[in-house]
Design goal:
Elements (H helix, E strand, L loop, with lengths): L1 H4 L3 E17 L9 E5 L2 E7 L6 E8 L17 H10 L6 E17 L3 E2 L2 E2 L6 E2 L7 H19 L13 H31 L3 H14 L3 H5 L2 H11 L13 E2 L18 E2 L6 E2 H4 L5 E5 L15 E5 L8 E4 L5 E5 L4 H11 L10
Parallel strand pairs: 9-15, 12-13
Antiparallel strand pairs: 1-4, 1-5, 2-3, 3-4, 5-8, 6-7, 10-11, 12-14, 14-15
Helix pairs in contact: 3-4, 4-5
């Protein structure tokens, strides 16, 4: 499909591959929980399975190569002797008593040159491939779908004439590529770096695994006790810090609203009061459409600028006269220190959520 659309595919296969196996090991009576071992070939993980075998092995090794590789998919079985060699290479004194299943998984790191060509949109594995390091692949694909889904739905309501300078739905649909491709590129850099440290057999990554990691291990419990640090790390790995501030949809009104999420930021959750008992903000925003959040003393926007997909909420525990507008995927796209009806109306027209679009594409 990419070839037919003339969309380039930039990247390369990894010289390392992932090995998976379900197996029983001798002398594992005292072994419990997930375990990780470092060796010359890379890291080796053992996870309690308890289904068709006691353990799931996940390891990396130099790729066996071959033609017709289906990257990211389960490949051929791995010989018993190869698996035993992987265990021995990390210094694990255990023998494979039974091998229930195994597979090699060839990998690549690649990114499409663009995520949109006319009416064709690429998402998930069609748009990007990465190593499984840090578990970014599925999250990135889900975010592609969430980002694109609401834009396709709203594009039918975009003004094709007067509003937004006559740009209509094209600005909204083009923003899928301009938002998601840079964000995905940053994720590929992260996964590539981690996979290099985890699996490469070069001198530097081998030293990191064999020397630096054991010396740094005593600091891990101390770091895990720092809840804010751990929470921020989880938010980063979970892609909750993805920002679309460079997008044409991210608009900063005047006067600027200080002390609030910036346009392009994902709106963080909070306990808020909208009348009645306190509620979680994300729960209030779980419904479909755009949400305009007014600070306590903000003037309400005129009904004439609000389309049927727009919900207005007043946060009574947030002092100030400003507002922020949150799009359906949870990212802030417009904010202003006052209720700028014209600015809000223009932004709503830009994304296809205004009250009276002048025309439909």
């Amino acid at each position: 499909m990419r070839v037919c659309a003339g969309i380039g595919w930039h990247g390369r296969p990894y010289t390392e591959e992932v090995v998976l196996a379900d197996l029983d090991l001798s002398g594992d009576s005292g072994r419990s929980g997930a375990q990780v071992f470092a060796g010359r070939q890379g890291l080796l993980f053992l996870f309690p399975l308890g289904e068709q075998a006691a353990w799931r092995l996940l390891a990396t090794r130099a790729s066996a190569g071959g033609s017709g590789l289906d990257f990211g998919q389960l490949g051929t079985a791995v010989p018993h002797t190869d698996l035993q060699r992987l265990l021995s290479d990390v210094g694990l004194d255990a023998r494979i008593e039974r091998l229930a299943w195994s597979a090699r998984v060839p990998l690549q790191c690649s990114l499409a040159a663009r995520f949109r060509r006319g009416r064709l949109f690429l998402a998930g594995d069609a748009a990007h491939n990465c190593s499984p390091a840090t578990g970014q692949g599925m999250n990135a694909g889900i975010q592609d779908a969430v980002n694109l889904g609401w834009k396709l739905g709203f594009a039918a309501n975009c003004s094709g004439g007067e509003a937004a300078g006559g740009l209509g739905a094209e600005v909204l649909l083009d923003s899928y590529d301009t938002e998601r491709r840079p964000a995905t590129h940053r994720r590929l850099i992260l996964t590539h770096t981690v996979f290099w440290a985890e699996a490469s057999t070069g001198r530097i990554p081998s030293w990191l695994r064999a020397v630096a990691a054991p010396r740094a291990a005593p600091a891990v419990p101390i770091l895990l006790d720092r809840r804010r640090l751990v929470a921020e790390g989880i938010r980063f790995i979970s892609q909750l810090r993805v920002n679309y501030g460079h997008s044409a949809l991210s608009v900063e009104g005047r006067p600027r609203l200080h002390g609030a999420p910036r346009p392009g930021d994902r709106l963080p959750d909070a306990t808020v009061s909208v009348g009645g008992p306190p509620q979680r903000l994300h729960g209030l925003l779980a419904g479909a459409g755009v949400h305009v959040l007014l600070q306590r003393d903000a003037a309400p926007p005129p009904d004439a600028v609000l389309g049927p997909q727009v919900t207005v909420l007043r946060l009574r525990n947030s002092p100030g006269r400003g507002l922020i507008a949150v799009r359906p995927d949870g990212h802030v796209d417009f904010r202003c220190g006052t209720t700028d009806a014209a600015g809000l109306s223009n932004w709503l027209s830009l994304i296809g959520a205004s009250a009276s679009p002048s025309s439909r594409p």
